[in-house]
Every structure is written in C-alpha cells, then in structure tokens.
Amino acid sequence: MTYTATGPLPAAVLEALGRYDTPTICNAMEIVAPERRLIGYTTKQLVCPFPDLPPIVGYARTVAIRSVLKSSLAPEEQSRRRIDYYEYVGTGHGPRISVIQDIDGPDVGYGAFWGEVQSNVHKALGCLGVITDGSIRDIPQWAPGFQALAGSIGPSHAWVHAESFGGEVRVAGMSVKSDDLIHADQHGAIVIPLDVAAKLPEAAELCGRRETPILEIARSPDFSLEKLKAALKRSAEIH
Fold first, then answer.
1. CATH numbers and ranges of domains, the chain
2. Phi and psi for 117 in degrees, rounded to 5?
C-alpha cells in the first residue's frame, strides 16, 4: 500500500542531516537562515519515551485529531475516511514523519490516538515517528525504533479520531505544512526549509569547531578565567 515518491532533496542530504542532533541543527540554522532564529521549531516541552533513538529526518504528514467529541460521521463514512487517511500517510515523499495536532483545546491529550496499533501501522506505512501535542499510550508495546514526541502519556483513546489531514497544523509552537522537512530527536523538532537543507551539515561542523576550544578549556583541570577569555577569542576567529 505504501508508495514513496522521489523526494525534493537527495537521500544523501537527509542522511547527512541525521548525523546531528536537533539542537545542533538549530544552531546551524542560525548561521544559514538567521531570520528563523525565533520560528520553525517546537518551543514547548514534549515527552520522549525513547530518548536513545537517533534523530529522524523526513517529510511531514499532517493531521488534526480530537477525542472529547465523538465523530459525527456514519460508521461507513468513518471507515472510508480512515482508508483515505492511511492512503495519505502512506504515499508521497519519503521517509515521512507524522505531525499531529490535538484540537481539543483545554482537553488536549484527553484521548490517545497513538499506541501499539497506530505506531506499528504508521511504521509499516513508511513513517519514522510521530510529533504530537496529544497523548500516546502502550509504551511497552510501541513499534520498535519508531520515535515519539508527545504532549503527554495517558491510558485511554476516548473518542479519538482524525478530524482532518493534509492541512497546516501547529504542535508545541511549531507550525507545519504537509511535506515540510522535519528534523527531530528527544529535544524537540524543527522545520528545515528545503532551500537551506544542504547547507546545514557544513554549518553544523562550523558550530562544532567554534565550540571545541571553549569546551576544551572548560573541561580542563587547568581552567582559569583568563584561559576561557582566550578560548572565546579563538572561537570567534573560526570561520
């Protein structure tokens, strides 16, 4: 059922981005796209039950869910909507990351869309993980290697259902459109504009070189304020 179209970026670019954690990608973004210093990434804490998983990089599949109110659709239409949703998730540019906004307002996270079944189904559909401000459950039975960033962990799915999909969503302060390129790990997630993606690995290496002299003296038994000042000067001279 799944189909992965050729992405707008070479696979090598996504692989290179996946070698860095998300904070480093954020640092690199400040170099290549300084106008995005205050936008494009999660700004609220999300729960990550699998902090040891490596970073994921993929194209967004966007969904809006709710669980407090029962779907108004007839059972037959609900079944058709579910198939349409899975077809949307399982097609397009790959790899993919599911980005789900819970639109229950003050009751956000009341019911979990994600658990043992959905994590395994979405993994089979070609997704690498989920980023949601809603809740998740079934942590021990979760699909192996499938990353999760969630607003909370809870026990029930209540009346949870997909209200819409393919539109713009906002999760933990990050606005995402379908097919946006996402980088995520245990720290959070960031949207990477396609036109700067290939520049980020080099910028990330530059960030690392600039941090090296500072970290070396900070970790040295011979640390002193004067040596820190000298290290900061050397760091500023690295281009």
1. 39-193 (3.50.30.40), 201-237 (no CATH)
2. -70, -55
